[in-house]
Amino acid sequence: MYSKNVLATIGNTPLIELRRVCEDVPAKILGKVEAFNPGNSAKDRIALYMVEQAEKQGKLKPGTTIVEATSGNTGYSLAMVAALKGYKCVLTVTSKASQEKLSLLRSLGAEVVICPADAAPEDPQSYYSRAEQLAAEIPGSFYLRQNFNMDNSKAHYHTTGPEIWKQTEGRITHYVCCAGTGGTLSGTAEYLKEVNPDIQIIAVDAYGSVLKHYWETGEFDEDEIYPWKVEGLGKTIIPDNVNFDVIDDFIKVTDRKSAQRARALARKEGLLLGYSSGAALEAVYKIKDQLKPTDVVVALFPDHGTRYLGKIYNDEWMKQQGFMPTPEEEVSPYSYTQLKRIYKVYKRKYGRYFRVTR
User: Fold this and answer.
1) Hey, what long-range contacts does 165-169 have (CB within 8 A, 24 or more apart)?
2) Looking at residue 64, what DSSP letter applies?
3) List of domains in the chain
4) What DSSP string runs through 315-337?
5) Kind and range of the H or E element at 279?
6) Could you confirm whether 229 is annotated as catalytic?
7) Cα–Cα distance measured from residue 275 to residue 100, given in angstroms and rounded to the nearest whole number
8) Catalytic residue among 4, 28, 32, 43
9) Whole-prediction pTM
10) Could you report the per-residue pLDDT of 128-156, keeping only the tens digit for each?
């Protein structure tokens, strides 16, 4: 059996139990690993769905140039879809996008425009504004606007949500997902809430992003905004795709712990995943005291770690940021159960040489 093209392989990504990295969490923790998509991220789903919906609506025709503002992953997925369908692709990205991501975008023939990461959304130099400008300047172009294009969340409503429900045989109790454009979070959550309203939706946000504060107060607060490192997490605008009504809890995570959790996934589970996957895992740890042994938690892991080799998987970069774990935080190559066994063996063999003082 074969696929007619690479786009036919999008979706149906595996759900993997995290036995070692989450051994001390009192619930079954499953990772929805979107890196198994052909473009190595969850954005493959929305790129294909948004483009095909635009084609059906007559907005995309032969010779059209696709324009998008992206943190990198949507750009790669769009470039892949555009290459197969014969469209040109122009992408605006922020300067915090990793070099690996930029190289990947260009490898598929996309034109990349780099914009300052600290530019406010309304700044003419921001990657949002530059995308608007380019869409106006390029004849026959179409700006997809993933933040405000509701086909973004519909893609996940029709694919990711049903997949998770089927893979867990309806036993999922919690869905943990990073909030960015809102499509992956909201589309999946809307489906899950329809089939079981009791499923808890845990959204993840970055310090420096406005999303959690908006969910709590209904107010956009510019004072919340400051730079952060995690790519694909958080926003300085309020995207239409974020359905705040389906969210049960919003958790902020730090750049430092997110990086450490991603590295732990690689070293304990053999899963080389992206920065925001570490953010999702950190959120799981932040709710672990609320979990029961009967709970089934699905954490969505958005992309592959090869796009971050120069950052979170680079010890020098980690040291420069002050993110390297202290000796107490360092990830052990042994599981929690293995460490307990080792401790018991050493205590039995050598306990008489040690005197416990209080």
Assistant:
1) 165/191, 165/192, 165/195, 167/15, 167/30, 168/15, 168/30, 168/296, 168/298
2) P
3) 6-37+152-321 (3.40.50.1100), 43-143 (3.40.50.1100)
4) HHHHHHHT-SPPTTTPPPSS-HH
5) helix 275-286
6) no
7) 13
8) 43
9) 0.87
10) 999 999 999 999 899 999 989 999 999 99
